[in-house]
Amino acid sequence: MLEVKDLHVTVEDKAILKGLNLTINAGEIHAIMGPNGAGKSTLSAVIAGKDGYEVTQGTILFEGQDVLEMEIEERARAGLLLGFQYPIEIPGVKNIYLLKAALNAQRAARGEGEIPAPEFMKLVREKSAEMKLDPSFLQRAVNEGFSGGEKKRNEILQMLVLQPKLAMLDEIDSGLDIDAMKVVASGVNSLRSADRAILLVTHYQRLLNHIEPDRVHVLVDGRIVKSGDKELALELEARGYDWVLEESAA
């Protein structure tokens, strides 16, 4: 589903990714871990098409399509979704309007008509309940006045409504208490399917207690230096990153 080859990325002329390689197959959940400043958030931002990043070398293919040749909205319509570490507030735009506009844009790209209003309302109410968000949140401006946990649950609500093929979640666990994390993890787990992939960027193994990854990758200084199964995350929790840094320097 996703193939990243020899990816080099700079931000304000500073090299961040330095030859990163990653392959994610449909049906898989991959977790990216690593020390601060390693480039974890940069990877998902570049795949999604966020401004401010310059790809100087390498390729990103999504279902065989050259992602770097696609505009941001084309990537979204193709099924890419980025859940933000710090979700932004959008004053004046109701949550429900954003969800409906995004879903209908996606349907139009597939040659489908707009979703009927009763069907849409049933969908968003069901998904809001799954994320333990009161229905009143649908009528509020996007993330405005939401707590940190509510913003994160709202990000997952968007994902549940839009059903992306590749969901990239950037530190979706930061700032969550244990109850909110369980709700968020439940939403992510409900999306697991044979035709979808999920990329988790996280600092902490605790998220992976609730969302079991197929593969764990350690990103150090712009490259993936070690990969393994969920046991690797447990080892990182116990031993820190120093041993990986020493191995990668050897």
TrEMBL record:
Gene behind the chain: sufC
Gene Ontology MF: a single term: ATP hydrolysis activity
Alphabetical list of CDD domains matching this protein: ABC_FeS_Assembly (cd03217)
Presence of the UniProt keyword Manganese in the record: no
Domain ABC transporter: residue ranges: 2-246
Entry keyword annotation includes Nucleotide-binding: yes
Family designation: Belongs to the ABC transporter superfamily. Ycf16 family.
Keyword set, alphabetical order: ATP-binding, Nucleotide-binding
Xref: SUPFAM superfamilies: P-loop containing nucleoside triphosphate hydrolases (SSF52540)
SMART domains, sorted: AAA (SM00382)
Short name of any one Pfam family annotated for the protein: ABC_tran
Record-linked Gene3D superfamilies: P-loop containing nucleotide triphosphate hydrolases
UniProt organism field: Salinicola corii
Protein's UniProt name: Fe-S cluster assembly ATPase SufC
